[in-house]
Amino acid sequence: MLEGYTWENTCIVTDYDRTITTGEPWATTAFSVFSNCSSIPKIITQERKELFSFYRPIEVDETMEKEIWDKHMSDWHHKAIKVFTDHLTQEMMTDVTEHAIQETQLRQNFPNFLKKANQRNIPSVIFSAGISNIIEWVLEHHSVPFSGIYGNKLVFNDSGKCIWLDSEGVFIWKKNWKSIPSETQKITSWKSHEILLWDSLWDVLMSDKDKVSTRIGFLLSEYQEPSIRNQYNTDFDHVVESDDSDNGILEEVVHHLTQNSKNS
Ligand SMILES: [Mg+2]
User: What is the residue extent of each domain of the chain?
Assistant: First the structure.
């Protein structure tokens, strides 16, 4: 693993929820934080809860036929957006920001990994089907650097009503390198090697086919099926079986890059 990788030629493409953050089933995510805030009206919480109860088991069902799974994930995303555009206002967001910062747990060693990468001029792009405003607030609070985020940005009009800049947004099946804007692609275009980090088999599409890729996957405790474990071991170059740690792999990556770089 990582043969030919150096600080000079490497970039990072990473998922956010349950990858940079911890992966327990109850962990706060860049979407779920809205459920815990007193400023958020019950109708938002209730509608989101109903959507989660129905679609989350489908999201983690790695055995479902891809076409059916895609349809469900698309429906979930669009229904979740509609809940926000129907009920969310800008003044509710102050409370949401505080909850996001207080409740979100970052995976052990991940912040330090991104800081070291940034010091060595390694660009990092975050791919997420979550709310990018939340991701920015949490990472900036923890002084975690990143080069770009491709996610769902909440936008409010002059009256403070939530609108959506992109009518489609980024949902899990659109976490595809080909679908991201060219200005985000340019962040890593000058690098020939990428390190991909994620927790879902579906995130494989985040890979830029023009680059040499090393895939590090976080296998969460939710995925208990032996067949799923086998699939992870097939699809990833390295599998971390932990909800809250990197089991030391990120420090190993830093060590490898340092050992193999001219300017180490
Ligand atoms: Mg994830």
Answer: 10-259
- d(CA 68, CA 2) in angstroms, rounded, equals 35
For domain 10-259, is the CATH number 3.20.20.370? no
Q: Decide: 31 and 80 in contact? Cβ < 8 Å.
A: yes
Neighbours of ion ligand 1 (CB under 5 A): 15, 17-18, 199
pLDDT digits (tens, 9 = 90+) for 20-71: 999 988 899 998 898 878 899 999 999 988 999 999 899 888 789 989 988 9
Q: What is the DSSP letter of 197?
A: E
Q: How many CA atoms lie within 13 A of 177 on its CB side?
A: 20
Q: What is the pTM of this model?
A: 0.87
Distance 15 CA to ligand 1 centre (A): 6
Residue with tokens 């052990």: 108
Separation of alpha carbons 148 and 89, rounded Å: 26
Q: Output the CA 199–ligand 1 centroid distance in Å.
A: 5
